Structures are given as C-alpha cells and as structure tokens.
Automatic annotation (TrEMBL):
<dbReference type="GO" id="GO:0003677">
    <property type="term" value="F:DNA binding"/>
</dbReference>
<dbReference type="Pfam" id="PF22608">
    <property type="entry name" value="DNAX_ATPase_lid"/>
</dbReference>
<keyword id="KW-0239">DNA-directed DNA polymerase</keyword>
<keyword id="KW-0548">Nucleotidyltransferase</keyword>
<protein>
    <recommendedName>
        <fullName>DNA-directed DNA polymerase</fullName>
        <ecNumber>2.7.7.7</ecNumber>
    </recommendedName>
</protein>
<feature type="compositionally biased region" description="Acidic residues">
    <location>
        <begin position="539"/>
        <end position="556"/>
    </location>
</feature>
<keyword id="KW-0235">DNA replication</keyword>
<keyword id="KW-0808">Transferase</keyword>
<dbReference type="InterPro" id="IPR008921">
    <property type="entry name" value="DNA_pol3_clamp-load_cplx_C"/>
</dbReference>
<feature type="domain" description="AAA+ ATPase">
    <location>
        <begin position="37"/>
        <end position="179"/>
    </location>
</feature>
<keyword id="KW-0067">ATP-binding</keyword>
<dbReference type="Pfam" id="PF12169">
    <property type="entry name" value="DNA_pol3_gamma3"/>
</dbReference>
<dbReference type="InterPro" id="IPR027417">
    <property type="entry name" value="P-loop_NTPase"/>
</dbReference>
<feature type="compositionally biased region" description="Polar residues">
    <location>
        <begin position="398"/>
        <end position="409"/>
    </location>
</feature>
<comment type="similarity">
    <text>Belongs to the DnaX/STICHEL family.</text>
</comment>
<dbReference type="GO" id="GO:0003887">
    <property type="term" value="F:DNA-directed DNA polymerase activity"/>
</dbReference>
<feature type="region of interest" description="Disordered">
    <location>
        <begin position="398"/>
        <end position="421"/>
    </location>
</feature>
C-alpha cells in the first residue's frame, strides 16, 4: 500500500481519540445515549480542530449495530464501511467545489429515499459557507424539516458567512483551537505507534507552529520525521517549520536590555536572510516577552510557557526586566503587527519596533535611587524656603504688635485702599533682582512663544497681558498688566504647576514663578534702581573699597544696566515731557 500521511493514518476513529473539544464530545455522546439526536448540526471552528472527524464519528455512532452507544464499536460492518468510505448512506459533500444550486437540488431529490444499509442517512457538508445564496435557499426547507431518517452535519470555518436562517435551524457546536499540550500528547502517541523516537523540545516547536490545528501539527511532524531520518532534533524542527530557536530570542532580549542596537538589527538581518517571515517573527516576539512576563508575575506556571523554557538563564533574564518594560514591549509589537497588515514593508516596521523597544528606559532600583538625587535637593531647598517664610511671618506679626495706634490706623487705611488689589512679594522679587542675569531672562523670553502655543487655551489666556521681566537661576518675575489677571494666575495651582513643568522641559531648569502686577513692578524696579545707584555711588567714593566685586554684585550690576535700558526703551519721550510740564499727578495716559 502507498505511504499515507500521518494526519490520514491517525485520524481519530472514536470520541476518546479526539484531542480537546471536551464540551462537544460530552454533548454528542449524551445525545447518542439518550436518543436525543436532532436533524441538523453546525460544526464551526478553525481548520484542523476535528470538525470532519467528529462528524464521521457521530455518523458511525448513529448507525452502529450496537446503538444506542456513546462510542462507535468500529468492529461491526457498518462502522467499518463508514471508516473506509464505502457506506452509501454517509455522504460527504464538498461545498467548496459543489457550490451551485444544481448540486444541492440533487441532494434534495435523494433525501426522501430511505437509507440502504443503515439506520440513518447522514449528509456531511464541508465548507458549507461556500454555497451560493440560491443553494442556501434551496436547502432551507429540507434542512428545517427533513425525513426522520436524515441527519445533516454542516462544517465551516467561517460561520459569519452563513445566512441566519440556516444557523437558526441547526444545533451549533464551536470547536476551539487545540492546546499545545494536547497536540504534543497526540504526536507522542503517533511516534510511539510508528516506532520513532520522540524529542519533547522538537514537538513543542511543532505544536507552537501549528497554532492549535492538529492536522497542521501532524503534517509538519511527518515532514520533520522525513527530514531527520533516524533521530528527530530541535534544529530539524526549527528548520522545517520556519520557527526560531529560543536562544535567538534570548540574544535579542539581552541586546535590548543592554541597548545594543547594532546587535539587535544584526540578529534581525540574519533571520531575514534565512527566510523568516517578519509578521510571524513579530508574533513570536510577542509570545516570548509574554513568557518573560509570566516568569515575573507567576513563576510557578512553567507549563504555560510557549517559547521560553523554564531554564535558569531565562528566569534570570526575566527578572532583569521590570514588568512595565515588558508591557511596553508587547504594546509596541502589537501595534506594529496591526500596521504590518496594510503594508508591503513588514521588515521596516519590525526594525522600527525594535528601535523603539531599545529606547524604552529600563529603570532598575539602583537607577531610580540615582534619579531621585535632584528631587531630594529641590525638596530640601523648598523646606529651607518654607522655614525662612515662617520666620519672616513671625517677625512681621511681632512688629505689627509693637506698632503705635497711629501707625495701626494708617496701616488699616492702607489695607482698605489695597484690599481689592494683589499683594506682590516685593521682598522676594528684590532678592531675585540681586542675582538676576540678562542671560536668564533672555532664555525665558526666547521660549515664550513656544510656551504660549503649548499651554492650554484657558491657561494661555491668563498670559495674554503678561511678560517675564527679570530672572535668576532659580526664579523669575512675571509681570501682569492687570491686578485681576495676576490674582487669578497666582490662585490657580494647576496653571502654576503646568507652566513650571513646561518651562523646565524647554529650558532644563526648574524656576520659581513670582507674580507681580505692572504698577507694583514699576515701584519695585524704581526702588531697586535707586538703591543700587546709591550703593554704586557710595562704593566709588570709598577709597578703601575692594577693587573686585562679588559674583552677586556683578549680577546685580548687569541686571541694573539691563533694567535701565528696558526702562529707557519703554518710556515715551512725549509722556516724559508732559510729566515735567504739568506734574505726574495731573497726567493721565489712555491707550488708543
């Protein structure tokens, strides 16, 4: 007899021999035992999951001479004839090649004839979704009310293509993909029966490549056995199935961990030269990083691993990756897999995905401790500022308590006049001006248009009439034209935090923001210029003064020069002349 492929020789002949599909087997066996079989069944599921085999087994059990039974005996003449395909009462019909209405009408005409040798006439229509609409319409009435001696079994991989009127007339059974464990067990049975030594690692590779289909697994097993000769090896299985060994995945993951982009791309290029498919490789990478994630989160579930083995080196590799990084890798690869469907350049997409993955920051506990350094320093600085402010507040309260009644009354009147205005932090602004530099303010101003475009519209609206006027290394002064806008900005914590974060992203520095209305800024600026001018005069007249000034004084001198230039540039000569002639108190300025 000519050689037959494994999937034909070892087609299951009873429900017990079927791998997986426990829910289908139990339901059909109970129906057979209690004579509760119906007239039409729909078997749906992926290819190679046992739909046609289950249909033939069910047909044998229906017509078995020992019926009712839950399993066909495979010994009576009826069972044997159905097994070898000579029974005329079990008709297999391929809808893919007989999709026209004429073929269906031929079935309908013969349905009314009684079975020749069996109890039931069974029609197994494979790939039923390939029938034309007219063929479905012709079958409809017969499928709903066939003669008592007829059973229809429809098998399909695409049930969504069937009319709902057909589906509603059948008992539907959904066949699931067969697990890798069940596939390996079945292949071990086949190899043992054939007298061929097995290799568990090679069988796992074949089961993974089969994607839940037993027929695909047995076909690849047949091919690997033919290629290997006397002994089947994992290298042979990888070569025949087009899969990739776990060592390659280990090297890829290790290179991603060390940010060795060159090695990552070199490994990918070698795989492409070997003829590996980029889409299949992406799926395998997702599965591999899923295995590493499983080792991190559930190390006891080794039996669920698909590509990575439970060896110690893989466990160590898995623990070097933070869980968040593995999640990110899987997200990148999944998005890439979706994009590949609409492109002819799958390799380019995979290369881009690997580059993205190599740039994902892998944060270990040691790195996290190093990164917290600047934040700890900033926290300490803020704590010192809070302590200084508390001391100033206490000193202010003590001074107010020692004031005379006349001073208190004057202070009350002053508070009444300024109750509706914004109180600017003049002392803090004066400190900023002492250390302010022209470079700092120009740095902020250069990024000002970008800040305005990237802020939320509601936040940017607060800055329409505002501008930075002075800046030091750690703080800057933001001037507002109107008191109400200044008050709103100062009270809005969300705005302050968003503004500071955006400024830090652009300049690389964390600035403290000091809000000041325009009127208060003019007074503070005048006072600073006046005090600095007097100090400069006193220093020049003192012959014993040091020839070199401190860095703080140099910065203040530089800021004084900058502010004087700014003041001169902003002053209108006509307004200055009018104020000289009539006095500042009688001059009122209106903007057209």
């Amino acid at each position: 007899m000519a050689y037959q492929a494994f999937y034909r020789v070892y087609r299951p002949q009873s429900f017990a021999e079927m791998s997986g599909q426990a829910h289908v087997k139990q339901t059909l066996q109970n129906a057979l035992l209690y004579n509760k079989t119906t007239h039409a069944y729909l078997f749906n599921g992926p290819r190679g999951t046992g739909k046609t085999s289950a249909a033939k087994i069910f047909a044998k059990a229906l017509n078995c001479e020992k019926a009712p039974v839950s399993e066909p005996c495979n010994e009576c003449e009826t069972c044997k004839s159905i097994t070898n395909g000579s029974n005329t009462d079990v008709i297999e019909f391929d809808a893919a090649s007989n999709s026209r209405v004429e073929e269906i009408r031929d079935i309908i005409e013969k349905v009314r004839f009684a079975p020749a040798n069996s109890r039931f006439k069974v029609y197994i229509i494979d790939e039923v979704h390939m029938l034309s609409n007219s063929a479905f319409n012709a079958l409809l009435k017969t499928l709903e009310e066939p003669p008592a001696h007829v059973v229809f079994i429809l098998a399909t991989t695409e049930p969504h293509k069937l009319p709902l009127t057909i589906i509603s007339r059948c008992q539907r059974f959904d066949f699931k993909r067969i697990t890798a464990t069940d596939i390996v067990d079945r292949m071990n049975v086949v190899l043992a029966d054939s007298g061929i030594p097995s290799n568990d690692q090679a069988l796992k590779v074949i089961a993974q490549a089969a994607s839940g289909g037993m027929r695909d697994a047995l076909s690849m097993l047949d091919q690997v056995v033919s290629f290997s000769g006397d002994e089947m090896t994992i290298e042979d299985a990888l070569l025949v199935t087009g899969s990739i060994g776990q060592d390659i995945f280990y090297q890829l993951a290790e290179s991603l961990l060390t940010k060795d982009v060159g090695k990552v791309l070199t490994l990918l290029e070698e795989l492409m030269k070997e003829g590996k498919d980029a889409v299949r490789l992406t799926e395998d990478l997702i599965t591999f990083f899923r295995d590493l994630l499983l080792m991190n989160t559930a190390p006891s579930l080794d039996e669920l691993l698909e590509l990575a083995s439970g060896e110690e080196k893989f466990k160590q590799l898995a623990h070097q990756f933070p869980v968040d990084t593995l999640y990110r890798y899987i997200e990148i690869l999944s998005a890439t897999q979706q994009e590949m469907r609409y492109s002819n350049h799958a390799k380019v997409y995979l290369e881009t995905a690997l580059l993205k993955m190599s740039q994902v920051k892998v944060t270990t506990s040691q790195q996290a401790a190093v990164d917290l350094g600047p934040f700890e320093e900033k926290i300490a600085q803020l704590e010192r500022t809070v302590i200084a402010l508390e001391q100033q507040l206490k000193q202010g309260i003590a001074t107010n308590g020692a004031q005379t009644p006349q001073a208190s009354e004057s202070q009350k009147r002053q508070r009444l006049r300024t109750q509706t205005g914004f109180k600017a932090p003049s002392g803090r602004i004066q400190e900023v001006l002492k250390t302010a530099t022209k470079q700092d303010i120009q740095l902020i101003k250069s990024h000002w248009p970008t800040i305005m475009t990237q802020l939320q519209k509601s936040h940017a609206a607060l800055l329409n009439e505002a501008e930075p006027v002075a800046a030091s290394t750690g703080a800057f002064v933001l001037k507002f034209k109107y008191d109400i806008h200044c008050q709103m900005a100062a009270d809005n914590q969300t705005f302050s935090s968003a503004f500071s974060q955006l400024l830090m992203n652009l300049t690389g520095k964390m600035y403290e923001i000091l809000f000041v209305p325009e009127e208060a800024w003019m007074k503070i600026r005048e006072e600073f210029i006046r005090n600095k001018g007097l100090k400069a005069t006193d220093t020049d007249s003192d012959s014993d003064a040091a020839s070199e000034t401190s860095e703080t004084e140099q910065a203040a001198d530089e800021m004084l020069s900058f502010m004087q230039e700014e003041k001169a540039a902003t002053e209108d000569p006509l307004i200055v002349e009018a104020e000289k002639l009539f006095g500042k108190e009688f001059v009122e300025i209106h903007d057209d």
